[in-house]
């Protein structure tokens, strides 16, 4: 399986991380995303007219959406990661997968603006990013009330992997995670998974703030 990849792309990292957790070996084809903009050149546009990476190829199959790639890797090598034990869980996983694309736009947009000087309304991106983080914090708080550490179950699914990179890298866009104890515990839970691999730029400094102490109300 071949992954068109940029080492500092959180969307590409989702796929590398999922493959590492599943023990799947990827053939990495590095893309000169910055400064070369190779993803907008003729070879890659022929594969993905949307002009984005990652792109995953397996034989005749060409996938250009990270959520579809996560689902494909899981269906092939670890169906339990699909989180489809019951209709409600399957629906929750889909809900967070859709949500993850908002994170690409707002948290990812703020990060690109800060790191690669991409044009954009940084204040609006940050405000949307913070609104999304509040939603995620509330979702994870509700999960804690159900004694579950991850987004849909008490074990990780592709939904967690879809959301993890842009959240972990939010501080790169100038958005602090200090105010979100449940998110910080969730980041730690993902980090401690067997087979977890780092991405350059997702570093522990982001999490070395005071320990999170989420309030858990009596049931
Ligand atoms: N829908 C895509 C979006 C991925 C995405 O936004 N990738 C970024 C890199 S992290 C990209 O290629 N952006 C194009 C650009 O900024 O020129 C997915 O989730 O797979």
Give your account of this protein's structure.
By secondary structure, this protein is α+β, with helices and mostly antiparallel strands. It has two domains: 2-80, Glutaredoxin; 83-207, Up-down Bundle (Glutathione S-transferase Yfyf (Class Pi), Chain A, domain 2). The protein has helices at residues 10-22, 42-47, 66-77, 87-116, 122-145, 158-168, 181-191; strands spanning 2-5, 27-30, 55-58, 61-63. Strands 2-1-3-4 form a four-stranded mixed beta sheet, covered by helices on one side. Strand 1 (2-5), helix 1 (10-22) and strand 2 (27-30) form a beta-alpha-beta unit. Helix 1 runs parallel beside helix 3 and helix 4 packs parallel to helix 6. The radius of gyration is 17 Å and the shape is globular. It starts with a strand and ends in a 28-residue tail after the last helix. It binds glutathione. Glutathione (GSH) binds next to helix 1.
What is the class of the largest domain in the CATH system? Mainly Alpha
SS element count, helices: 7
How is the main sheet built? 4 strands, mixed
Q: The CATH topology of the largest domain is what?
A: Glutathione S-transferase Yfyf (Class Pi), Chain A, domain 2
Number of extended strands: 4
* Low-confidence sequence ranges: none
How many discrete structural domains? 2
Which class best fits the helix and strand makeup? alpha+beta
- Second-tier CATH architecture of the largest domain: Up-down Bundle
Portion of residues in beta strands equals 5-15%
Average pLDDT value?
93
| Secondary-structure element string | EHEHEEHHHHH
Provide the spatial order of strands within the biggest beta sheet. Answer: 2-1-3-4
- Determine the N-to-C terminus distance: 47 Å
Q: Roughly how many Å is the radius of gyration?
A: 17 Å
């Amino acid at each position: 399986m071949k992954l068109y990849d940029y080492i500092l792309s959180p969307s590409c990292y989702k796929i590398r991380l999922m493959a590492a957790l599943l023990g799947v070996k990827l053939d990495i084809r590095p893309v000169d995303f910055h400064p070369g903009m190779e993803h907008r050149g003729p070879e890659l546009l022929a594969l993905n007219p949307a002009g984005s990476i990652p792109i995953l190829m397996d034989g005749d199959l060409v996938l250009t959406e990270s959520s579809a790639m996560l689902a494909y890797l899981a269906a092939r090598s670890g169906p339990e990661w699909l989180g489809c034990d019951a209709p409600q869980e399957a629906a929750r996983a889909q809900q967070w997968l859709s949500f993850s694309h908002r994170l690409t736009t707002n948290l990812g947009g703020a990060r690109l603006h800060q790191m690669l000087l991409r044009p954009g309304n940084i204040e609006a991106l940050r405000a949307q990013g913070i609104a999304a983080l509040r939603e995620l914090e509330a979702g994870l708080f509700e999960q804690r009330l159900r004694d579950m550490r991850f987004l849909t179950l008490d074990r990780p699914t592709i939904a967690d992997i879809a959301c993890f990179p842009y959240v972990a890298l939010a501080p790169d866009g100038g958005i602090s995670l200090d105010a979100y104890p449940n998110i910080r515990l969730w980041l730690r839970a993902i980090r401690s998974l067997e087979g977890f691999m780092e991405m350059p730029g997702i570093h522990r400094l982001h999490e070395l703030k005071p320990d999170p102490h989420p309030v858990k109300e009596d049931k």
